[in-house]
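// run 5 | inverse folding | seed 20
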């Protein structure tokens, strides 16, 4: 059934669990995620990322996400991920999403605050909840979500000092003044493929939790160890954004299927292989998030 992300995350926060938000640029992604959630009887968030507009556009994918959400046996929220303009956020709201992310984290603090506050007014008037980001979550040069502007190599990232972490005092001011419903925080995760072990600063989560009372979001969630998921959830992360490693698992499985003497596979076979493997990948993550 289709639900608002606010209700979903309020419940998860109360129970010290996290809900996975999975990006869905293809029907295979949607089917893998919904089947995984139903098999585990677990709530889930389907997310369309603005960077995936080049793969499928919002008016094409949102109705399909809503269709699968409505007929699912488990609670499903439908979300716009990393919307960087009012136009795309309003477009997503008109298509029927239950929440949006307005991401002005590349801008200075005051601009991020002022613009987010405006977007919150618009979205709330339509009954849609809003996620924003404070601090900076980088995007690995090896693909993944996030904005192209934020794409850096690890060498560059290592040269940047620690001020990309979310500051708890600023988070309080930001949340109080914008009225935002969820906050994505930067504590060392990276969008895309991890080329080395992520260096996570879990204390950032606790510092923010001590100042703000809304659900907190981990971006760059895939590729993080089960142990770190558990620690982050214990400290107060309630939503985990997950894409790259599900996508990679699907691609790898198709490659192996073709190499494995299937010289002339039909596309439906490949599609089924990808769905099955992505479903297992998602289930593994969901078991930890929902424990
Ligand atoms: P990954 O692709 O690194 O899992 O990150 C997903 C994400 O944060 C989407 O916003």
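// decoded
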């Amino acid at each position: 059934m289709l639900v608002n992300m606010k209700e979903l995350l309020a419940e998860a926060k109360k129970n010290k669990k996290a809900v996975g938000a999975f990006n869905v640029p293809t029907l295979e992604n949607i089917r893998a995620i919904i089947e995984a959630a139903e098999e585990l009887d677990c709530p889930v968030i389907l997310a369309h990322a603005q960077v995936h507009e080049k793969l499928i556009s919002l008016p094409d994918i949102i109705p399909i996400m809503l269709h699968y959400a409505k007929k699912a046996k488990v609670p499903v929220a439908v979300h716009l991920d990393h919307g960087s303009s009012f136009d795309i956020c309003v477009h997503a709201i008109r298509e029927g999403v239950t929440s949006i992310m307005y991401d002005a984290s590349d801008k200075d603090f005051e601009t991020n605050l002022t613009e987010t506050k405006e977007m919150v007014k618009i979205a709330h008037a339509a009954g849609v909840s809003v996620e924003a980001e404070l601090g900076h979550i980088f995007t690995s040069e090896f693909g993944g979500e996030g904005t192209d502007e934020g794409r850096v190599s690890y060498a560059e990232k290592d040269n940047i000092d620690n001020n990309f972490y979310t500051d708890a005092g600023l988070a309080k001011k930001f949340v109080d003044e914008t009225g935002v419903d969820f906050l994505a925080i930067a504590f060392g995760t990276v969008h895309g493929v991890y080329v080395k072990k992520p260096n996570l600063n879990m204390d950032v989560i606790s510092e923010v939790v001590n100042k703000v009372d809304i659900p907190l979001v981990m971006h760059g969630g895939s590729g993080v160890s089960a142990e770190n998921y558990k620690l982050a959830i214990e400290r107060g992360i309630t939503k985990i954004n997950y894409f790259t490693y599900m996508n990679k698992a699907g691609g790898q499985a198709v490659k192996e299927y073709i190499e494995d003497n299937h010289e002339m596979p039909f596309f439906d076979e490949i599609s089924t292989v990808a769905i099955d493997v992505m479903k297992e990948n998602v289930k593994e993550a969901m078991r930890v998030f929902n424990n």
